[in-house]
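Write out the 3D structure for:
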Amino acid sequence: MSEKEKIELLEEIMDLDLGTLHIDDTLKDYDEWDSLTVLTFISEIDSRFGKKISGEEIKKFVTVADAIAVME
């Protein structure tokens, strides 16, 4: 999955228009990065990538780059 596709997946999870997010954007600047989004993100990472990620790990995310880095 390319970086662009990962960002698009994150935009989908956050219910944002395509092209809204950029790699260096700060997640907390988006109201859409809320607890429901985090739960959806955890679920998507598990189902699409077979990875388990905790809320504590997600709390350490600062930028979009941090979020998409776990999409391997």
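Helices lie at 3-13, 35-49, 55-59, 64-69.
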